[in-house]
Amino acid sequence: MVDVDSMAVHDRIPSYLLPVDQQKRRHRSRDIGEELLQHLEQVVILVRRTKRSALLRSLIEKVCGVQVYLEGRSDDAEGSVPLPVRNALFMQLASLPSSSQRDLQRAAERILLLASDEFGVQAVKEMLDPGSPADASVLAPPTDKLSQAIYLYLCQEFPDALRDPRFDHAEVRQEMLRERLNRRYSSHYVGPKDVQPKLGPEMDALLLDRLYALFPEVDKDNMLVEIFLRRERNEPDAPIVLYTLRASFNGSHVHYRKVQGGEMIDHDDAAVTCVEFAWQPGKGTLSVYCEDKEVRPELTKVFRDVVLGGNGEIGAMPMREFDLTGFSSPAMLDRIRRERRDGIDSITIQEVVIAKPRICSAVVRGKPINRVAYSDFRIRKHRYDSRDIYAIAGGDGHFDDLTAYEIVRVKIAMQVSRTAFRKSHPVTVEITAPNGFSDRSKTEEDAELVFGQLERLGCAWQY
After folding, report:
1. 434: how many CB neighbours lie within 10 A of its CB?
2. Which of 88, 170, 93 is nearest to 125 (CA)?
3. Which residues sit opposite 426 in a β-bridge?
4. Are 275 and 289 in contact (CB under 8 A)?
5. ω before 197 within 30° of 0 (cis)?
6. Do 45 and 108 form a contact (C-beta atoms < 8 A)?
7. In terms of Cα–Cα distance, which of 324, 309, 323 is closest to 191?
8. CB-based contact 281:193 (threshold 8 Å)
């Protein structure tokens, strides 16, 4: 049983308050963002990565309505914010009211999501006009994708004259550019509720040992562990509703060519790989993300054994499950109309992938064997087509009865209702039974809303 009081994050003494001889903490970030602003993960990441100081300062001032100081850092300075200036900025952000911190976190989350992949970066560049002096100044080198996204966000949310909706347009364009093969999925598990993680140096050391056992080719001394949290309210004693633990290490390889001294030189280098755990103690849900999908069950064991202090087989933390058989019948359209929850204006089935498994016999090395073969068919609804997906399947594909097939994947578009802090916007979710759910390209609020809708439709379960 975990002793919650002894592991409360706010009881830990931040290292920057300790004497200098006690501040040595390996495998943690050099700045104080993670310790001081654990509930503002997206803000910390944005401050670390943005290279245009003027845009970063303008974003904070306009969202929070206060003046911030980047002491020793001029607005025309280039490159990431230096460590002393960054730490001073984190101290200023920590003193802001909880409402201002929450607004800044929402803005940072949308900006980071837009710049999170090549599709968002392309969408942002498509929105910028090199012929416009203001846009050209943001495109001029040296520039970076986050600064460009911040610029579009400021033009839209804090315009000098008319509102410029290019940030919204870039988000829509990003969704259009995403292809199925480029989607990343988290795997979802469910464990015991109300168990608080065991945080501290001992957990760090055990976690690194277990990760090194899974990734023996990486340099153990160059692993970085960061922990962020979100509380029910922006108060030090408020219950923690979400822990995010991220381990980063040089676990992948990149190959590129570069002209040097008049010759084409091949380079091989190590690139960063991230393992991310998101734990909701109140619900007992764990989301695990890693590029290598095959290793995710093992990573879940690591989190359960090291961070939660549990033992046993992986069956002790069953996955969220998805059942797509309901989409084999047009009755799902009626259910969507009846069961649409508050916060969602409309739901459209955009794509259904079906397959009919068949047994194929073959002789291998003189022995007869049977193999299961899946040849799938994709039924896709174009955005200009007014017919529903089942009319398209029967009319164009001659699939009059989908119940004879296995539903492999479903893609659904939902229109999220307008809120006090964001206009109505589309969200696309792609489900692959039994446990694939594309939630990494959504805000936390959108992901929860979408999963709740899937539960109401009877195609998702959480144990």
Report:
1. 12
2. 170
3. 415
4. yes
5. no
6. yes
7. 309
8. yes
What three-state secondary structure class fits 71? coil
Token digits for 203?
A: 């957990």
CB 4 within 8 A of CB 57: no
Number of residues in the chain: 463
Give the residue from 429, 432, 187 showing the smallest Cα distance to 285.
187
User: Over the stretch 395-453, which tens digit does the pLDDT of each residue have?
Assistant: 888 888 898 888 989 999 999 999 888 889 999 888 887 777 776 667 878 888 998 99
What is the pTM (predicted TM-score) of this model? 0.68
Residue type, 395: G
Contact 283, 320 (CB under 8 A): no
Extract the runs of DSSP E, i.e. beta strands, from 165-314: 187-190, 223-231, 240-260, 263-280, 285-289
Residues 6+ apart with CB under 8 A from 435: 187, 188, 319, 320, 321, 322
- What letter does residue 116 receive in the DSSP assignment? S
Q: What are phi and psi of 46, to 5 degrees?
A: -65, -45
Residue closest to 301 by CA, chosen among 287, 293, 318, 313: 313
Between 463 and 12, the higher pLDDT residue: 463
Alpha carbon separation from 315 to 305, 312, 320 (Å, rounded) = 13, 8, 12
